[in-house]
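Re: [ENG-882] Designed sequences occasionally contain unexpected residues at chain ends

Forwarding the minimal case from QA. Structure tokens:
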């Protein structure tokens, strides 16, 4: 069972939780840590013999072209996380089309590899964006992994399917939702993010085993470079809830990830998407 492993490549100050505290106009004056964190991830993946997908912001790729070449050169997939982490439902159709077109050009130019996959910032494709998947299909994307089929305080599309589906009639585009597990008839997040970092590792292992063994489907898992960086600057002015979620367990994350890499079989999202496409044909 090949599971999809992905890294959402954004820096510590670009997360949705700090959007109201740090203005995009100030980003260029802030100390960037994404390149050293990605190098640590490349080392970890290399040690484990694992290939993965790096959903990268165009803004980051433009400033770190050598990093993009190193990621692609190590055999990983370069895919799009949009330009500057604006959530899809804040953009509207025309601005979304521009955002992903701009990001893709820079991602392809810097990495030297074709981009066929997209992940919306903060899983922001939901009921408010009925045009989003169509725009992705029109721009020739093979797959998207942009839907969280669950209710969360700042994202989620509760009614969405839990596994790969074709969101646009007549198009080949595949959507691979982030993994959820079913417990007593309820869906719980099981594909990374705060769920993985905050709860004991055994909960995640159990949930992914359920999905693989009992449901016979692949998992789609994600994390961020800043999650393995306990030394990142602290945002004292962010809301307490955001700070708790962002800073808890950063020091244990790398160890948890190494266990996860060893306990399951992982690969690039485009490879998982191709298998899922064949299955849902
Ligand atoms: Zn993101």
């Amino acid at each position: 069972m090949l599971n999809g492993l992905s890294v959402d490549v954004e820096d510590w100050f670009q997360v949705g939780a700090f959007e109201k505290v740090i203005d995009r106009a100030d980003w260029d004056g802030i100390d960037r840590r994404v390149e050293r964190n990605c190098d640590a991830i490349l080392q970890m993946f290399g040690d484990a013999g694992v290939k993965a997908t790096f959903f990268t912001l165009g803004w980051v790729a433009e400033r770190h072209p050598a990093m993009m070449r190193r990621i692609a050169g190590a055999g990983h997939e370069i895919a799009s996380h949009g330009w500057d982490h604006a959530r899809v439902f804040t953009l509207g159709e025309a601005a979304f089309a521009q955002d992903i077109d701009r990001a893709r050009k820079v991602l392809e130019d810097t990495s030297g590899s074709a981009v066929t996959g997209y992940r919306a910032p903060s899983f922001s494709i939901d009921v408010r964006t009925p045009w989003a998947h169509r725009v992705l299909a029109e721009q020739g994307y093979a797959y998207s992994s942009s839907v969280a089929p669950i209710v969360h305080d700042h994202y989620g599309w509760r009614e969405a399917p839990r596994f790969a589906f074709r969101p646009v009639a007549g198009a080949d585009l595949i959507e691979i939702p982030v993994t959820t597990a079913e417990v007593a008839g309820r869906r719980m997040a099981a594909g990374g993010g705060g769920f993985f970092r905050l709860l004991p590792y055994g909960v995640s292992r159990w949930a992914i085993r359920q999905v693989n063994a009992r449901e016979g489907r692949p998992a789609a898992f994600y994390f961020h470079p800043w999650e393995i960086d306990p030394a990142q600057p602290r945002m004292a002015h962010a809301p307490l809830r955001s700070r708790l979620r962002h800073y808890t367990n950063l020091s244990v994350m790398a160890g948890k990830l190494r266990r996860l890499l060893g306990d399951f079989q992982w690969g690039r999202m485009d490879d998982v998407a191709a298998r899922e496409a064949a299955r849902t044909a």
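QA comment: On inspection the terminal residues look reasonable. The radius of gyration is 17 Å. Proposing we downgrade this to a documentation issue.
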